[in-house]
From TrEMBL:
Principal location listed in the UniProt entry: membrane
Keyword annotations of the record: Ion transport, Membrane, Transmembrane, Transmembrane helix, Transport
Pfam assignment, any one: TrkH
Subcellular location: Membrane
TM stretches of this protein: 12-33, 39-58
GO CC term, one of those recorded: plasma membrane
Name the record gives this protein: Uncharacterized protein
Organism name: Rotaria magnacalcarata
Species classification: Eukaryota, Metazoa, Spiralia, Gnathifera, Rotifera
Membrane-protein topology: Multi-pass membrane protein
Length: 123
């Protein structure tokens, strides 16, 4: 009948141990029989899928916490990139001003020699 277990050695505590072991990722199993060292041998296909799912969830258990922080990290990275862009634009403007100032300084007026002689003789 449906109520009689096909494997009487499979108890609730053994199943809980298997699930916790799978979640922890240690690979420890209580075993089913001397011929089968793994209790998952007695599980049905949906039970094995649930066990595999719990193994994956245990392996990536910190993923959800890191995804919560990801929004802050992305915002910080975007802010950092934008500030670097503004800094580069500011430096480019300053460089253009310096080049313009050098061009103005490098153009020597025609009466430069008379100005220098006046300045040098005055002192």
């Amino acid at each position: 009948s449906l109520l009689t277990p096909s494997y009487p050695n499979v108890t609730v505590f053994r199943v809980i141990f298997e699930v916790i072991s799978a979640f922890g990722g240690c690979g420890l199993s209580v075993g089913h029989s001397p011929s089968s060292p793994n209790l998952a041998f007695a599980f049905t296909v949906p039970s094995k899928i649930i066990l595999i799912f719990s193994m994956c969830m245990g392996r990536h258990r910190g993923l959800l916490d890191s995804m919560k922080d990801q929004e802050e990290i992305e915002y910080s990275a975007q802010t950092l990139i934008q500030s670097w862009r503004y800094l580069a634009m500011y430096e480019r403007q300053q460089q253009k001003k310096r080049v313009t100032k050098r061009k103005q300084i490098s153009t020597v007026p025609d009466n430069f020699s008379s100005l220098t002689s006046y300045i040098s003789t005055r002192f």
